[in-house]
Amino acid sequence: MATMTLRDIAKALDLSVSTVSKALRDSYEIGEDTKKRVAAYARANHYLPNRMAKSLKEGKSGSIGVVICSIDNSFVSRMLDGIDSTCTQAGYDIIIMQNKESLAQEKACLNQLEARGVEGILISPSAETVNFEHLAALKDTGMPIVLFDRISEQFESYQVGIDNRRGAFQATQHLIANGYRRIALLTLSPDVPFAAQRREGYANALKQHHIPYRPAFVRTVQAHGREALKDSVRAHIRALLDLPEPPEALFAATDQLSTQSLAALHQLGCQIPGDMALIGFSNTELADMLTPPLSTVYQPAFQIGQLAAEKLIELITGKDRSPDYETVRLPIRLDLRDSSRPRFQATV
């Protein structure tokens, strides 16, 4: 099958090649009706622009860099779906790189993306990223950068995520409402901005209900590789169970910590929620099929990725000229299942 060209589209729609080209680039010179007609015809006939020729002519790569913690994560996968949907519709390719929760790896990813000429970067910072000087330096070169998911008040940029404090507060409050008083928290280092915010939400819920904050119940997991994470989660849960007065419930504050906690509790012979109730931050589509079904703080992952990509494209194309940065916090919801059912029912 012959490759469709701009000339073919122009001839079919009785337009000039210049008009078709400008319409596909979303130029202000072309009316919206014409843009829609050209875009619809191009999609229907599988038109693919010659990116290499376009890059040489315009000095633009047509690509966006995306830096994530790890691709083997259901929550991250949904965010990537949102990013890909938006970028594809706008005519951008995405280059995905993984920082593996390492600051050094994150810096290497950014260097590679800059060398490959990406027009902007979407980044969910690593668990080791507590200082944002490397991102600030890159932004100072003129590179548009948008933070997504792991947002931080320490870096000035457009950001899209959730209200981490509120999500953690609601999860902890749910356990309290269901009769649990000794509630443990499994989380990442408080140096990580989003982890610090979730720790604060947990502490605020305890305080509001006049429940003492017990440092021994707050366990910090080191996130260096899948196997190390698995071992660390299991060790922390074992330590909690060995306390003279062990917790009755556990709040796991990230997607991976949630599923690893469920597995570790089973391996250690705990009945859930009879011995330990559990709620986590997780977007796994398997939550309903786990044993028992897992209560979760659900984050709108697809929308986070979608909005972050939209904002970055606005910065790249110059459609957003505001001197002020905006942080968008999308609402969360609690999906409540058997793993955190009321305490008096848990022991039946």
TrEMBL record:
SUPFAM superfamilies tied to this protein: lambda repressor-like DNA-binding domains (SSF47413), Periplasmic binding protein-like I (SSF53822)
Keyword Transcription: yes
Stored Gene3D superfamilies: 3.40.50.2300, lambda repressor-like DNA-binding domains (1.10.260.40)
Gene Ontology molecular function: any one: DNA-binding transcription factor activity
Lineage top rank: taxon: Bacteria
Pfam families the record matches: LacI, Peripla_BP_3
InterPro entries: HTH_LacI (IPR000843), LacI/GalR-like_sensor (IPR046335), Lambda_DNA-bd_dom_sf (IPR010982), Peripla_BP_I (IPR028082)
Record key words, sorted: DNA-binding, Transcription, Transcription regulation
Occurrences of domain HTH lacI-type (ranges): 4-58
Protein name: Transcriptional regulator, LacI family
UniProt source species: Parapedobacter luteus
Lineage: Bacteria, Pseudomonadati, Bacteroidota, Sphingobacteriia, Sphingobacteriales
